[in-house]
Amino acid sequence: MSCCCVLDLRLTPAHITPYRYAYSVLQELGPGQDMQIWSSEDPSLLMEQLQYQMRHALVWSATSDGREWLITIHKRGADELLPLGGTLRRDHETMDLQLVGALRLSGAHNWREAVVEVARLDHALRTHILLENELLAPLASVKAAEATAIMRREHDDIVLQLDVIAEIRESPDDKCQELDTWLGLLAATLNKHEYREESLLFPSWERMIAQRSDRESLLAEVRARLKAVTP
Ligand SMILES: [Fe+2]
Ligand SMILES: [Fe+2]
226, 127 in Cβ contact below 8 A? Predict the structure, then answer.
């Protein structure tokens, strides 16, 4: 790797956190460029936070001698597509943001705008669930059978909650309080559901898809179906 930038987190100024320091430098890194970071701590949590902020645009690895870590980072260019796990994680995060936005609007009794945001979320979430049930669940290994069954049950629960929310938003009356309650319930359900999928199923799907001869067309279909409903 030819590296254009090296950051030493051991020299982080006292008034900011290592995360803020790294993020401020990463923001300046152009698409397709590389950098290295030295750290005296295990970078797993830091990189998780940075990936979230950078919308999974980073490819990274780390080496350590047990005392310090050298992290090598590549920022994906516009023509470098995200792998399956990153694509799905990014979709989770987009829907989480839509849900937070809808909750904020209903909490502020802004019924009209809340309903628009909820309709957007409804469409995105149903599309995401259909994709996982139809296209990805059949790819799972035998070892992931139990996690797949749990995922399908949770999808059924989420769809039921979406149906109730759809009924509320089609009500002619302003029912912000009721909408707020059901959106809060959906947020709690999604929180657990997404964590389980990301830790148990995404790695399994990625391993299985990598072995298939039709992986490129499968990945293209995943990206196209998600892109049609979320930016
Ligand atoms: Fe799901
Ligand atoms: Fe998901």
Answer: yes
